[in-house]
Every structure is written in C-alpha cells, then in structure tokens.
Here is the input.
Amino acid sequence: MTPYDNPVGNFSTLSAMLSFKRSKNSLSIMYIAPPIIIVVVSMTSFLLGENTGSRITVPTGALTQLVMQWAAIYSKLPSVPVLTYFDKWMLMNLISVGTVLFVNACICHLVYSKGEEISTKKSMEMKIMANDDSSQHPMRQHEENMCRRILSSLKRNVWSVNFMAFFVLGVGYAIVAYWYVDTWKNS
Here is the structure.
C-alpha cells in the first residue's frame, strides 16, 4: 500500500487566503471629512459681501489645501495605475471648489465692478454739476435719485444672487457627496 492510493489528507501544497479589513470609520475620518469641511468653508465666501479679495482668496486657499491634502495622503499610499474611488472623490471636491471660485469671480466682475462703474460715473457727473449753474434743475435731482435706486437695487440683487449660488451649489454638493460616499462605503 502506497500513500498515493488514498490521496485524502495527503497534499504536497497548502494554500491559504488572508484578508485584512480596515474599519470604515477610520476611512471616513481621514479621507472623507476634511474635504467636506474645506468645500463648505469655500462656500462661505458667498457670504462675504462686497469684499472681493476675501471672496477670491477663500476658495483659492481651499483649492490649495485640497491639493496639499491629496498629495500628503498619496505619499502614504502605494501607487496604482488607475483612478481609484479616492481620486474621483478628491477630483469631485476640487471641481466643487473650482466652481465656487469661478462663480465668485463672475459675481465680483459682473456685479460689483458694474456697481463701482455706476458710482464712479455718478461721482464724476456730480463734480461736473457742482461747477454747472443748472445743477439745481429738477431733472438732475431725478437722475440722482434714479442712480441711487439702481445702486441699492443692484446691492439687493447681489445678496439674492449670492444666496442662490450658495444654496444651489451647497445642495448640489451635498447630494453628490452623499451619493458618492454611500457608493464608496458599499463597494
């Protein structure tokens, strides 16, 4: 009787499969929460009013922070040749902050520069009228009142545009982020 006659229990190789699972909570804290906070901070730039410098600086700083965080995390991970869920997550956050920056730039250029243009023209007209004897004319007073109404209407509309941009971008980001994180955790 040889050992090859009854092969049950007699193997020349042994195979085993080891599986290491990381808890999902550490993943959320390290990779998901910081970009969400950074995007929300960049969206608060809509609430800064006419301060154009701050409105542009906050999203620019957020973009810089996201890129630095992405690079720091990648320095700890092994490189892979394909886009991972993490890459897509960070790209989505970068696109969101870039959109906030673009919308802020458009609002600042189109609305605030127009308001400054109108007020500059009006101040120049006021200087000319100060030298003119016909400045007390009722038509001139009507033009002044009309210019003031246009400026105040423009400022009121700016707040509604800012709020609408904040709301639409915020809700859109929340929906996409929730869907993406849910997909990522279930994969």
In short: Residues 138-186 form the longest helix (49 residues). The chain has a mean pLDDT of 76. The helical segments are 24-43, 52-76, 85-131, 138-186. DSSP finds four helices and no strands in the chain.
